[in-house]
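Team,

Forwarding the record for the chain on the shared tracking sheet. I've put the sequence and predicted structure together so nobody has to dig through attachments.
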Amino acid sequence: MKAYCYIIFSPSLNKHYVGSTELDPANRLELHLREFYGKQKFTAKSKDWKLKFSLKCVSIIQARKIETHIKRMKSSKYIENLIRYEELQSKLLKQYQ
């Protein structure tokens, strides 16, 4: 089973959103943009979300652990480095096997 940890970014909000999914990340983004998850959700605040990062994981459990790790960092700089440096991505996959 494949799963992904993904990060989307809204320029108008200047915010990242971190999530995990068993769907293709591009399809998941489309659901966010169509307010499939509701109009009260964080991603409904903007219509300019762009997929910035996706990390293919071996299971949804691994994807959720990586999602939690990224959220606990509470750092846009960490997210930017994660997107930029593949070695950080590999380290996360190994750490949360």
